[in-house]
Task: inverse folding
């Protein structure tokens, strides 16, 4: 009889443990919507109840750390992250823990330590784009823009559809005066995230870049300022520079000046945008064989193929989707077939370096 009771007890222990874990994770799932709507204390209350059932539940601890981070409880966040990394060295959830950990250190202005943690996470999870992105944000916060740009590029090699990495690239390349890379990054961002506050800001930046150096100075006079560096490169023996878009930049300026031509002055902003993008895409197609670099190898082929597939019109209206112009809203509302055609093509597009 004693043996039977002992066996029953031994069988019951793993059953109860599994049941507790299942109930705990249900509570975690209930807590996540609280976090998503900004009730971080409410979320933590659910996570703590889950931890009463299963004190080492990795899911509950990782979500609790995230909510504590949102409350700027950085020390508590770091304590949980350290514990999870030490106790679960091979758990895939650690890739998000490294992001939370790095963010908490960044919140404490411990920049060097934050970068160190992101690097440690990348060494363990080299394909997780969020680690590169967040490392880039930290670099950008201390004005190390070249390092930030490289991180955002690496994030996009892992996930080309990450809006925030495209946003970061567009803004930093614009600040550096790299017109074409910034235009391409902003266009990619607006395809992915067309109707948010960031979209409005980035659309304004995109329009500014497209008309950069071009302005009407009189009734029949247009001023076009060409950057002297765009005139370089006539010497065939000169070494080709990485991400050199001098030719495209100059051709774009000429195309932008045509906005003021009599035949274009009555066209809509979107129609003139399409014409300028046709110029950019044609130039990219003609010169891509003699150039190299991240933008030539990753962004340029996408836009060349976009033009080849006659998708510039739906692309343009998506880019301008955050505009308040009624004709743009009406086109988007009434031309679902063209929009679907573009999005289906973009979804299936094969990014060369995407793993």
Result:
């Amino acid at each position: 009889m004693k043996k039977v009771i002992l066996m029953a007890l031994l069988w019951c222990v793993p059953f109860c443990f599994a049941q507790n874990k299942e109930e705990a994770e249900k509570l975690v799932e209930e807590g996540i919507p609280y976090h998503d709507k900004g009730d971080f204390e409410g979320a933590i209350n659910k996570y703590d109840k889950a931890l009463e059932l299963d004190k080492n539940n990795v899911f509950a601890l990782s979500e609790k750390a995230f909510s504590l981070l949102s409350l700027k409880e950085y020390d508590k966040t770091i304590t949980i992250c350290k514990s999870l990394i030490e106790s679960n060295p091979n758990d895939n959830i650690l890739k998000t823990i490294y992001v939370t950990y790095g963010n908490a250190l960044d919140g404490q202005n411990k920049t060097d330590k934050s970068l160190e943690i992101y690097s440690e996470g990348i060494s363990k999870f080299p394909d997780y784009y969020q680690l590169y992105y967040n490392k880039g944000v930290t670099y950008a916060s201390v004005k190390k823009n070249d390092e930030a740009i490289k991180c955002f590029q690496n994030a996009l090699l892992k996930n080309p559809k990450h809006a925030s990495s495209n946003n970061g690239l567009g803004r930093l390349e614009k600040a550096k005066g790299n017109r074409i890379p910034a235009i391409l990054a902003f266009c990619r961002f607006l395809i992915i995230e067309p109707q948010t506050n960031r979209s409005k800001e980035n659309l304004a930046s995109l329009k500014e870049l497209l008309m950069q150096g071009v302005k009407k100075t009189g009734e029949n006079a247009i001023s076009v300022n060409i950057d002297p560096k765009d005139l370089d490169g006539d010497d065939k023996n000169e070494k080709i520079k990485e991400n050199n878009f001098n030719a495209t930049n100059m051709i774009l300026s000429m195309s932008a000046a045509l906005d003021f031509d009599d035949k274009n002055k009555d066209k809509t902003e979107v129609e003139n945008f399409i014409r300028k993008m046709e110029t950019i895409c044609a130039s990219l197609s003609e010169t891509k064989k003699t150039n190299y670099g991240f933008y030539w190898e990753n962004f340029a082929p996408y836009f060349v193929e976009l033009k080849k597939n006659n998708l510039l019109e739906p692309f343009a209206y998506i880019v301008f989707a955050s505009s308040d112009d009624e004709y743009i809203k009406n086109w988007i509302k009434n031309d679902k077939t063209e929009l679907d055609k573009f999005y289906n093509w973009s979804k299936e597009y094969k990014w060369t370096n995407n793993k």
